[in-house]
Design the sequence.
């Protein structure tokens, strides 16, 4: 029954599985055809020469017919699988930036919750003013630039996603606290120092961010709530402001001193 299910309802994900399916179907068809022919020849036996000739013809015809037919069916299943994979990938990607979208980040967080170390939520500062002054095409270009720099600077921490609008997030799954803080501050400073050129428009963009560390029993909803609250406090404090959990304050102040000691208190006070 398992063999018949594999023949009738195959799951083919790559060329190797396609080749295996063709071989399986062809072998199944050949075995069935020969069994019928052998039974027929032995039932109406004339001589062994005629039997061998009939079995040879049956084998050749079966191979000629079954192999291309099995390939056509298997290839159709492979293309269907690829189409489903593409549709799923598109459903998990942000069409503007190419980053993961909100759905993808939440799904990964829930699937790998025990591996999640931190969640950082970012919001582009005064983004509405950019759209109002220059239009949505320039605003979209600015978001793409932010996403590109974020992926380059923070992709090593885990999954980088655009949550929607001017909001982004990084789900950190493979990092130490030192690396988390250092990379976030490096991203902040690189973004602030990088002009974004769109036609004859030059923009200077900054982001504010809220950082939350996951405790052992925290689910994603609680982690998100902590990061969102930290982001709210960062936005209320001004532009280019990051809010870290109190537990990271000594580490943040020590690492921030490497970047710009004069800016440390204004932008990096713990929530």
Sequence:
């Amino acid at each position: 029954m398992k063999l018949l299910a594999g023949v009738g309802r195959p799951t083919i994900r790559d060329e190797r599985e396609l080749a295996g399916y063709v071989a399986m179907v062809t072998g199944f068809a050949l075995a069935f055809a020969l069994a019928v022919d052998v039974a027929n020849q032995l039932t109406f036996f004339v001589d062994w020469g005629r039997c061998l000739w009939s079995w040879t013809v049956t084998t050749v015809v079966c191979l000629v017919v079954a192999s291309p037919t099995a390939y056509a069916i298997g290839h159709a299943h492979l293309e269907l699988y690829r189409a489903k994979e593409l549709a799923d990938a598109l459903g998990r990607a942000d069409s503007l930036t190419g980053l993961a979208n909100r759905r993808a980040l939440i799904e990964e967080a829930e699937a790998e919750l025990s591996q999640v170390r931190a969640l950082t939520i970012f919001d582009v500062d005064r983004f509405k003013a950019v759209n109002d002054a220059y239009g949505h095409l320039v605003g979209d270009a600015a978001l793409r630039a932010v996403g590109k720099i974020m992926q380059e600077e923070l992709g090593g921490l885990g999954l980088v996603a655009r949550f929607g609008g001017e909001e982004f997030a990084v789900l950190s799954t493979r990092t130490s606290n030192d690396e988390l803080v250092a990379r976030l501050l490096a991203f902040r400073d690189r973004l602030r120092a990088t002009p974004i050129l769109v036609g004859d428009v030059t923009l200077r963009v900054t982001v504010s961010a809220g950082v939350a560390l996951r405790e052992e029993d925290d689910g994603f909803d609680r982690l998100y709530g902590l990061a969102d609250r930290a982001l709210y406090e960062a936005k209320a404090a001004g532009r280019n402001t990051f809010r870290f959990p109190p537990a990271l304050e000594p580490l943040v102040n020590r690492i921030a001193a490497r970047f710009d000691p004069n800016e440390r208190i204004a932008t990096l006070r713990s929530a």
Q: What stands out?
A: The chain has two domains: 2-91, 102-268. Confidence is low (pLDDT under 50) at residues 1-5, 264-271. The beta strands are 118-124, 158-164, 167-172, 195-198, 201-204, 207-213, 242-243. Residues 102-268 form a domain with the Alpha-Beta Plaits fold (CATH 3.30.70.270).
